[in-house]
Hints:
Helix content of chain B: under 10%
Strand content of chain B: 35-45%
Distance between the termini of chain B: 35 Å
Distance between the termini of chain A: 27 Å
Shape of chain A: globular
Strand order of the largest sheet of chain A: 3-2-4-7-1-8-11-10-9
CATH architecture of the domain at 26-140 and 233-250 in chain A: 3-Layer(aba) Sandwich
Number of domains of chain B: 2
Strand order of the largest sheet of chain B: 6-5-4-7-8
Largest sheet of chain A: 9 strands, mixed
Oligomer: heterodimer
Largest sheet of chain B: 5 strands, antiparallel
Largest interface: A-B, 39 and 36 residues
Amino acid sequence: MNTWITxxxxxxxGFLRRVENLKRDVAIISVGSTRFGEHWDKGxxxxxWEAGIQAVEEAGISGRDIQYIVFGNMSxxxxxxxxxxxxxxxxxxGLNPVPATRVEAACASGGVAFLHGYMAVASGLxxxxxxxxxxKMTDVESVQATEILSAAMDYEWEAYFGxxxxxxxxxxxxxxxxxxxxxxxxxxxxxVKNHYHGSMNPLAHFRNRIxxxxxxxxxxxxxxxxxxxxxxxxxxAACVILAPLDEAKKYTDTPVKVEAVAQASDTLSLLERRDIxxxxxxxxxxxxxxxxxxxxxxxxxxxxxHDCFTIAEILALEDLGFCRKGEGFKxxxxxxxxxxxxxxxxxxxxxxxxxxxxxxxxxKQIVEIVKQLRGEAEGGxxxxxxxxxxxxxxxxxxxxxxxxxxxxx
Amino acid sequence: MSNSxxxxxxxxxxxxxxxxxxxxxxxxxxFFPPRxxxxxxxxxxxxxxxxxxxxxKVFSYTVINVGSKTxxxxxxxxxxLIELEEGPRVMSQIVDCKPEDVYIGxxxxxxxxxxxxxxxxxxISYGFKFRPVDNSWKEYYKKLxxxxxxxxxxxxx
Lengths: 409, 157
């Protein structure tokens, strides 16, 4: 209740009060995903094909049934020299003349694409919609990748002065440590947990288990963040197919209902934030999503959060409302975020071990939750009796946040 | 970002070189970077340009070991989030001191420095950076010169 009062005093009551009059409920009928990692021998088209065909075959539909395509892609232009990714997807999947749109919201491109696919079905405009994400990142050297990713921040006032993406999250981490007494050892436990989960996921970028010592002895990228605090640069694509809920049973026995999708924006730069240890966009999107779904935090069985850096996972759990500000890291001291714990977080290894192909990440998170809700997560990472899951996708240092709640009700 | 020698629009932005921001007379808040519209009062706001003193405190900082291509040759360098006396925060480099000497709450002041060169023979970009306010930077330079066995030819005043 306190959160609501704070939000109203911030003057965004209107944003939350607005209730969409959607024509119908939406369900996910099938999913597909490539392995995330270094695909030296594959380009954007190959990745899209691999994820797309899995989803289409699983749904048992023909390409002719598809009415609309939305794809998330951050920077095909800067990574590969390839823009116009929407039409490229339709073309290469042999689906012309189906309309196709490319959505860009930095690392939240996938999540925002999902929102747009959801709107297309919920409004009644289209029935069968393919939503996906793709990114090919390993064809450039790492300094160049750092430069391209820094375009997700405020270029004029951050990157221009030498700030990098890890640098901006390091500024949040330093302040958080100063304010709340977080230790680098606890931060390391986030990466250890994600690698443990990644080791059970055949699609993960990294499948090795690591220890706290491994993290603390890895080279510093931007103090206090070390290499093992940062997610990798990956190639990958992921895809889901949406249909109206009341028709979903035609395609699958296990449709997953989209309870809510909510998106919010915040300042592009870190320097203008109200509090640099809070991602306000996440707070707003979460409040809105929970209100729309009519659910409480305790109803959530499994969470996929945007852990581009270890500190981001701790901030996300706090901002989503699972614990109070400044207390998120205590969950890691007690090991509650493992499969089998009170709140399993990033069961596919998250961005850290699962991989981060920026435009595809938001969809990859949804694919994992669908697998968990269907009881199909392999390798021993299945959460028993998971019924409701939440995915949290962030763009930049928090300028865009998308929160999606899915259930098997 | 771009390596071409073409002049960019921001070359004429005074805010790059002097700490110029926006002040809203309606809600009495200062903003940096400058804005066309006050995000609090929106069209009811009355904005005008303001020049900040350049003094502030370190709100948070980090040491960048892996830089982007443009800044690769400058690593390791310190990036700070500076809270100005007037309220707004600025992100920039902290110079004239060692990474281990920086702490949250340290008093700093703005100075004009070279930021980077565009490409190998490109235009030099200038902008503000921050340095410790307590004159310790003079000591820092003396030590640096001594280490390199160089002498001060022109006195730093």
